[in-house]
Amino acid sequence: MPSTRRVPDKRVALRQQGTLNPPPQAVQHPLFQDNAFFDPADLVQVKYEMLRQVQVDHRPVAQAAKTFGCSRPAFYHTQLTFTQAGFAGLLPQKRGPKGGHKLTADVLAFATQQRTADPALSWMALAARVRQQFQLVVHPRSIARQLQREKKRP
Fold first, then answer.
1. Which alpha helices (H) appear in 18-134, and where do they start and end?
2. Does residue 120 register a pLDDT over 90?
3. CA–CA separation, 33 vs 38, rounded Å?
4. Which of 56, 57, 50 is nearest to 79 (CA)?
5. Cα 21 to Cα 40: distance, rounded to the nearest angstrom
6. What sign does the CA torsion over 142, 143, 147, 148 have?
7. Which end of the chain is more exposed for a tag (fewer CB within 10 A), N or C?
8. By mean pLDDT, which of 2-11, 57-66, 84-93, 96-105 is the weakest?
9. How far apart are CA 76 and CA 79, in angstroms?
10. What pTM does this model have?
């Protein structure tokens, strides 16, 4: 008979990879209760099995979502990302913008030129000049951080 004991190293690895299911106790499906192969702490495994229950076993979405500790919108998001990217779509993604979407190369070049011409220029005044030049509202601290990052790059 297989052991139902979970390997602690796996949880550490899941946490490091960002795939640790935050509420494993919310997974109520019987497979994840009695079988050591099915680990409710493994978010990718939980998501895949949830999708499989709907697609293959024809379970209602609301029932599958609830049984796997998920909301219906989260189910549909998981289904979409899996359809678009396969297993990679089951991996958690960072939320929010993926970079300085306002601070384009033109804006940064302008800001750098302004600071070079007047090193005493405050970040607030620089943000005002960026707003005037590009009709773009950027927080002064965002400009400061990005210019400092640019300075550190070789």
1. 31-34, 43-55, 61-67, 72-85, 105-117, 123-134
2. yes
3. 8
4. 50
5. 7
6. negative
7. C
8. 2-11
9. 5
10. 0.60
Other Cβ atoms within 10 Å of 70 Cβ, number: 21
Torsion of CA 95, 98, 102, 106, to 10 degrees: 180
Residues 6+ apart with CB under 8 A from 2: 35, 36, 37
The answer to whether 14 and 20 are in contact (CB under 8 A) is yes
Give the tokens for residue 11.
């949880």
The C-alpha atoms of residue 105 and residue 109 are separated, in whole angstroms, by: 6
Contacts of 103 (CB under 8 A, 6+ apart): 111, 138, 142, 143, 146
The string of pLDDT tens digits covering residues 52-93 is 999 999 999 999 999 999 999 999 999 999 999 999 999 988
How far apart (Å, rounded) are the C-alpha atoms in residues 97 and 101?
A: 7
Domain ranges of the chain: 8-90, 105-149
